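Budget justification, computational time. The allocation requested in the original proposal was used primarily to generate structure tokens for proteins on the priority list. As evidence of use, we reproduce two of the resulting records. The first is shown immediately below.
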Amino acid sequence: MRSGTSFFDWTLFKKNFSRFWPIWASYLVIWLFALPIDILASFGGRSIGSIEGYYFGVVSSANAHLWFALFYGLFAAMAVLSHLYASRSANFYGALPVRREGIFLTQYLSGYAFVVLPQIIVAVFTAVIGFAWGAAPVLPCLAWLGVGMGTMFFFYTFAFLCGVFTGHILALPAFYAILNGLAVMVYELIDTVIERSYYGFAGFGDAVDSLVEWLTPAAVLRHVDLSYNRRTAAVAAGGEEYLLIYCAVAVVFLVCAFFLYKHRKLESAGDVVSYRFVRPVFKYGVAVCVGLFLGFVTSEIIGEATLPVMVVIWTVLGCFAAQMLLDKTFRVFKKWKGALAVGVVMAAVMACVVLDVTGFETWVPDAEDVKSVRVSLSTRSNLYDDGIINDLTVTDPRVIEDLITIHKNAVEHPAFGRGADEALEISLVYRTATGERSRRYNLRFRSSDVNTSGTAAWALEDIYANRALYWEIYGFADLEKQLAAGKRLKAVDYDYTYLGNNTDPELSYSYFADGGGARLAFSSYGDMMSLYEAVKKDFFEGRIGMYRVGDDRDYDSMNSRKLRFYYSADETDGQDYVVLDDDQQYVSIYGKQYISISVTPESTNTLEVLFRLIPEELKDQGLLSE
């Protein structure tokens, strides 16, 4: 005897397709125009170029999968779960001679079919065009389809899970949008509030940043794409490991959605949150987010000093607002105990921050405990060449002690007052035996303290005077290794832009290697090396590549004059790899490295050699007299 129940209902499946046809029809039409029709319109000929255009069309269109999945995955889930959001339709589906499991499977598969069947049709049409042109379209079209199906599987399943959790159709897109970006939103809120509260706070570190990115699916899946290699005429997927991970997560989401749907109560239709065990999470989660966001906004209006109080007040109000959404009434003030509890907890947290219970603001490491420091620093005395200290890892004990001295001055003098004429922006990441600690300061100090031991000016000047350190920073150490291994300098450029008051346009020069400007001409390789040796001599004598505290030199002028020494550090001994973009317009050159260093009026040895090469330009710059 046949059973009166089923695990899949074909009639319901077909009904969904006929009822919600605008979703799959619009998705199909958009993709037909975006891929096969666009390829036919743009590359209708049978030339080799049209075949490459075919591959580029497949590759470039794959980037749109993410955005289509974000929106059409939501639309499909809203359609097939719409029966949950009204008591009449929920009771009707509950009375069908189909098991709960069957309804779940039917609705899920029909919604997924809305967006997958159009992808299959588009892939077939695109493959047919490829065969007609003599291309090899099977693997490219399968790769395109695989990226599309995988991306859609994750976002559709995620939206489906959000839809099962709620009993209101408008709550589904709200939850879906919020949860897709919840991690980064909460992270930015916490980061902003703590940065306002803790002097020197520099973020939570790379590990937390990476975790937050993984909890923001769109941020990771944007790295999933296709690429075309002109040499091998092959289309390959990139970032497919990310897609596989999120597909595995989607399987977990699907299992959770299945059990939630199976035990869902029909009377929850119309509720913002359908399951009681989720209601406290929703209530207090909304309270904390509202408290952090509106607390920060309000304090920006009435004063930063009010931030802790505003966060507590808005947390309490946010708790009542969440209760109103859950109870669907404004009469929620009788449930004040939960609001009081979350308010007390938030007040305790903000008190710990304000009072610096953890000692965050006053912490300064001991030099012997620091293994290395990753540092970035910027002052008004920056020469914008390769000597800028940006994300530099330091292990030299002398430099580490100087950095700790600057850190200590920032802690002891957070708002240096009278006489401060120098500013320093510094970021420090200490690596110790117990892990990493980050700090960031905008420090003001007196340049006149440059000879006073223990001051920020003294420590910064000691860093500037460390020629061995800057030898590494500029890249001379690496260049010397290449020269010792038999490599050779490839070319030298002199970049210059006239900054004087003379308005004669003929006195404006610009020599850039990749801009088509002049490259210094040498009669022999020995002459090229003589310029390099002159720069080295000036460097160790403190006449070039030298920063100074309280420097009154014309940095704008010095930043306009640079030497670039090109050399190769790869196994091809400097062979250039020229890569054109899709329109064959822009050129990127790989296989080259160079050192850029600003030419100063004091660099007499360097100027002496340059005078033999470009005497007139040096005279126009005021570096040499007539």
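The second record produced under the same allocation is shown here.
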Amino acid sequence: MNEIIQKIKNAQIIDISLTLEAIRVCNDFYQDPSTKREACDIAIYALDSIEKISPECIPIWTDLIESIGFYPYLNKYKDNLSKLSLTEAIRQMHFKSEKLNNIFLHDEQKYCLEKIYNNKNMIISAPTSFGKSLLIEEIIASNKFNNILIIQPTLALLDETRKKLTKYKDYTFVLKTNQENTDKNIFLLTAERVVERKNFPNIDLLIIDEFYKLSENRDDERSDILNIAFSQIYKNYRPQFLLLGPNIEKVSDGFCEKYDAEFFKTKYSLVVNEMDNTNLKQYKTKEEKENVLFNLLIDLKDEQTIIYCSSPQKAQELANKFTEFILQNHTDISINNSNTDIPLVSWICSNISSEWFMNDCLKLQIGVHDGSLPKHITSSIIKYFNDSTIKFLFCTSTIIEGVNTSAENIVFYDKTKGNNKKIDFFDYCNIKGRAGRLMQHLVGKVYNFNTVPEEEITDVNIPFFQQNPISDELLITIDEDEMKYPNTPQALAIKKIQPDVKEILKNNAVSVKGQQNILKIMEETRLKGFIWNGYPTYEQLGLVLGLAWDNFNSQSSFMTKSKLTTMVNKYCRGKSITMLIRETIAYKISRGYNRKRAVNSSIQEVFQTQKHWFEYKVPKWLKVMDSLQKFVANKLGIRSGDYSYIANKIENGFINENVAILFEYNLPSSLINKLQDFIPEDVKENDVINYIKQNRVIDKALLTDYEKELIKDNLLIY
């Protein structure tokens, strides 16, 4: 097969002799399920070289492409291929989307959809380029389900899904924990928000994207919360479900039988990944390796390339160094690219800092995508990358699980992720799967700077089903008659907890032992220092957050308990991320940092604090601590405090509660502040966008080009 592919790539003309040889090999491979993917690769290489196929061979290749179910490509290349026979044309129309204009499904997408429409629970393991997001859109367009819950691991993925589905006006899109629903809804939520939400209607369909995150074997600290979300939704509503993920070999034994589900595994793909190991060697210094990378990127300057990096700090550092490399060594590129008009740059200058390295990067068509950046920035960068305004994208593990994009080239530059954990074969497959773009770049190149991890089988164990092992936080949510191992010390300890206490511990979905310890401390101190409302003093805030820090298993490479209290207190006082950035820069300069390092490190640090702590963890902790102090106060017969006001203010960025929904539509606080001056506080959050449209609010507010761009892209107001 490899010989045939090389012949196709190297041939000046794909003549009848090569065509017949290739077709024979392709047919032989396609008959065997274990080599079906390889047969598809031959067809993809032929399509990628379609201009080299001799005219008399076109009908033969057309028949092959039709026979292996590549109906999307039959439509895309209809001007290059021969006319289908009547039988073939009828078959092709069977694969035409009933609801999506000019969209054709491939063979295996059609199979999965028919199973779903026949009420079968499906677990689909398929490559990145299989088209799983198209499956979701096809289901929505069918209008078959009234209430659909889609759980995805990141807000970035949820945002992309929202953008694709917004046109389906029959549904209300529920994006927040406390947002009201209507008769027909699409709930787009993280697992954390699912667990926090208490008033779901009857869920007809549950979709979990990246379902491998159910497994504790992936070392994901959010495994418990996803298991809780799945088990509770299924227990309460018995919905049909669809689990989607890549490169999974099997799930827990007995799971499919109990839940009447079909596990569908395929390697079927309409894109080929091609490996380049030229740069796979030992480098004497970090600088030598960087220099090789930068020269490679210069060679690829006319194509789009994603560079995988181990951490946000590494991604930003490499992007910054590559910018300097271009400015110093390739003035022709810097002069040509510096004219690129990217409205985000002027917004950064006005709202963050004109000295931030990101400005120079963007001007040279270089972007960064990592989990620490504000959502509207990462979303805009992906938009610029997808429309080719940006050519180079330095990414972290967000490329694996946080964003749906792909490129002609992927550079596997770092071999670790997060806290120095090695990239395994599963992660590597997801990284390389971003090379090539369905319907655009049929063949994607993967440039390996590290040895490809050893191939291994990836099983997804589902803890709420297996229950061995299982955490206290998950076990406490399982009814006693559903416990598979009711007599273990762990299960017996859970059973001993008083029902009223158990209900609180279960609902809070954080460390059971940690909550029990906090309840004990609160009772022993008779809530001294815990009873307050509104804005807390520094001491009150430190007491509550400090106790949460000590008991809820916090891990952070850049945050400490005392620093967190200081940062939250400053944020509550100034109500501004920009102010916090300026204060942090000034502090670092006073500690001896040079200005450039102070600016870049301060912005990264504050953004990480905002994303990880202000937008979720601190509000969550405050709500948990609030529930615990109220329980103890009621038990002691004394007045309780109320932390809900400050928790909501921090979570919503000190924006009016009704317009905070606009954060979910990728609008920054600077823009929302401009809009909220023209939106009465009694306008309900589900009506805010219509109010903006009907009252022409965007004409009244003084918006920058970038803010207008965000309005157009996210609210569909032109």
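A brief technical remark on that second record: The chain has five domains: 2-94, 107-265, 272-448, 497-651, 657-715.
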